[in-house]
Amino acid sequence: MPKNQEHIVVYVNDLPVEIYRGMHVKHALISCSHELYRAVLEGDLIVKDENGFPVGIEGSLCDGSRLFTVKRENP
Amino acid sequence: MKQQKEIKHALLFFIIVLCIIIPVSLFAKDRSSTDLTILHVNDMHGHILPYIEKSVDKETPVGGAAYTASMIEAERRKNPGGTLLLAAGDMFQGTPISNIFRGRPVLEIMNYLKFDAMAIGNHEFDWGLGTLENLGSSAAFPFLSANIIDRRGKYLPGVKPFVFLSRKNLKIAVIGITTPETVVTTKPENVKGLVFLEPERILPGLVKDVRSSGADIVILLSHMGLDCDKIIARVPGIDIIVGGHSHTAVFRPVAEGGTTIVQAKCYGLYLGVLHVKVDLRTKKVISYSRKEELRVVYAGPGASFDSSVARLVQKYHDRIKDEFAKTVGKTAVNLVRNSRGESNIGDLVCDAMRESSGARIAFQNSGGMRVNIEKGRITMEQIFTLLPFDNLLVSMDLTGEQIRAILEQSAGMEHGILQVSGIRVILDPEKSRGSRIVEINVGREKLQPDRIYRVVTNDFLAAGGDGYRIFKEGKNIVYGDDLREAMINYLKKHSPVYPQAGGRIIWRLIR
């Protein structure tokens, strides 16, 4: 995909979501579902990348990034 | 008999000698390798105060510079002479305590902690090049970026592409790189005249240069994001990538070819502690820690903290209260919200958005404004309460047809009406949803369906928030100011303000 393209496609729980280049994890969640975004803000769900690493909601994204929301484990 | 006795004595002597030699050899220092400890943080975004991170613990605070400082000092004591402290960018911008003082609190703390180097992140440009240069010149450690040059091909003033550090007779090169997406994500005027080179283009030559200058270990201090770091790791000769930008908690260092990649999420939640064993003969990395690389910085009762850093944080915390109490503007009328129709506070916010961005039309969701403001002086604190979300302005080109569709959706009131500036819309409440727009004027002219209009909104709506998918179809996207900053600047310039709602969104019964 050309680097100067304005949109990128990322995947949230395997669903493709198109957002503007330069947007963050939170924008992908907002675009996907407000309930999902709210659940993450409340700490009921956490966001992980395809490696299984938690990511912050202000984290950057690139074309093809894959995000998964999982229930927060009790400490 | 005598012979037996002599054999017994010899045997006894042999056993005694073995008892001495074996333990000595067991506990003798391994002189064939040495240990380095790489401490790292990234994307602090000004979080020098502890906070609650709900995904970790809904009650116990975490983070906070004083607590991180204590952990850094403890790690340094374990490996004196063998520890590095690195920051992978985006350290300053992000919280009121840091924003208001333009990053000074964070810099003072980093100087006190004797950071060895920092990669420049995209948010280091948020306050303009002048502020970045000021921070760099006041830093006791180098700001690094090997891939940002000006039109003459020179690095930014005071910025180096790499630095050599010496630990335990090892020469360590630390190279900095910054995401080229900075050009997209930052206000254009903040990066005017700068060229962000693709790291894959410049790194092979740079790595070769530092190696031929005698570097034993090469660390890339990268503000690119984990996905990009995994690609960059293919450049030969990089031992370790200390990363940032994607806010990833890399709990187990990622091995990509011969390169180890780490990242400590964000906001000072973790301190990254990478132990690296280096062969002294070959000067090559033999092994690195594979687990517990990220240590949570707990700030609850009983957690150790550095009292000097705590005093520094407290100094700015006390000053912030004064800053929050300062007047940023005045209003001659009560500023009142209304999610079912035009509000004067909505008018004001949208006017501020238009002025900041230069756009023709502005849209703001009613839900993004959280309090009313009584007439009189307006304080900084009130602005933060009015606009509590960290929203950015996003400008885009939309057609008249798209704008009409947005306004129709707004008139459906699913999430309250959108507040506007630059347009006047007449609606018929008797009509069914999707057909309520009677007339739209942009200035004195009717909205033309095929014409392109420059629109500004906030990043929440731009991402399709509240179901406004049409905002995702914009073209020529430009990210602008922080919404609060736009509001404060507008109030400082135009006070006293006296917005009167009633001329922009008109519900009229058409007979």
Provide a brief overview of the structure.
Chain A is an alpha+beta fold and 75 residues long. Helices cover 21% and strands 31% of the residues of chain A.
Structure write-up:
The complex is a heterodimer of chains A (75) and B (511). With 75 residues, chain A is α+β, with helices and mostly antiparallel strands. Chain A has one domain (7-71): Roll (Ubiquitin-like (UB roll)), CATH 3.10.20.30. Helix content of chain A is 21%, strand content 31%. Chain A is built from two helices and four strands. Chain A has helices at residues 25-32, 34-41, and strands at residues 7-12, 15-20, 45-49, 66-71. Chain A has a four-stranded mixed β-sheet, covered by helices on one side. In chain A, helix 1 (25-32) packs across helix 2. Chain A is globular, with a radius of gyration of 12 Å. The mean pLDDT of chain A is 91. In chain B, the strands form six sheets. In chain B, strands 1, 2, 3, 4, 6, 14, 15 and 16 form an eight-stranded mixed β-sheet that branches. A six-stranded mixed β-sheet of chain B has the order 7-8-10-11-13-12, with helices on one face. Chain B has two domains: 33-320, Metallo-dependent phosphatases (Purple Acid Phosphatase, chain A, domain 2, 4-Layer Sandwich); 327-507, 5'-Nucleotidase, C-terminal domain (5'-nucleotidase,  domain 2), CATH 3.90.780. By secondary structure, chain B is of the alpha/beta class. In chain B, strand 10, helix 8 (226-232) and strand 11 (240-243) form a beta-alpha-beta unit. Chain B starts with a helix and ends with a strand. Chains A and B meet through strand 2 and helix 1 of A and helix 8, helix 13 and strand 26 of B.
